[in-house]
Structure formats: C-alpha cells, structure tokens
Specification:
alpha+beta; 32% helix
Length: 78
C-alpha cells in the first residue's frame, strides 16, 4: 500500500505545476485513486471572486465521476 501512496503523492506534486493560482501563488495538486486502480489528478483554480475558486480535490473527484468512476479509494493532496 505504501507504493500506491507514494505514487499518489508524486502524481499530486506533478499536477501542481498546472494549478491556476495567480492571486495567492499557492499551487495545490490532488490525486485520487478509484476502485479500478486509475489515478485522477486535479489542481486548484482561483478566481478574482475568492469564494468562486475550486479546490484541487474537487477537480480530481469531478474528473473521476464524470468519467463514470464512482468509488474513491484514497486521495492525496499536496
């Protein structure tokens, strides 16, 4: 299990490079593992209207669910 955790952390770190955080400068990446073993990544996306931003974990889960996966096994956020 530690190998998959390391893989998720690394995927989240790599995803961070695509974050859109022009206001805070705080890039966040997330990596979610579904029940079939597929990894879904996401990043934070800021908006000038602060509450309208989207967190990295919501993006990863939205990608997962919109592709038909329904069961989350584990998620890493960096």
């Amino acid at each position: 299990m530690s190998e998959i955790i390391d893989e998720l952390i690394e995927a989240a770190k790599q995803a961070r490079a695509h974050a859109y955080a022009p206001y805070s400068g705080f890039a966040v990446g997330a990596a979610a593992l579904d029940s079939s073993g597929r990894i879904w990544t996401g990043v934070n996306m800021e908006n000038a209207s602060y509450p309208a931003g989207i967190c990295a974990e919501r993006v990863a889960l939205a990608k997962m669910v919109s592709a038909g996966a329904r069961k989350l096994e584990i998620i890493a956020v960096v």
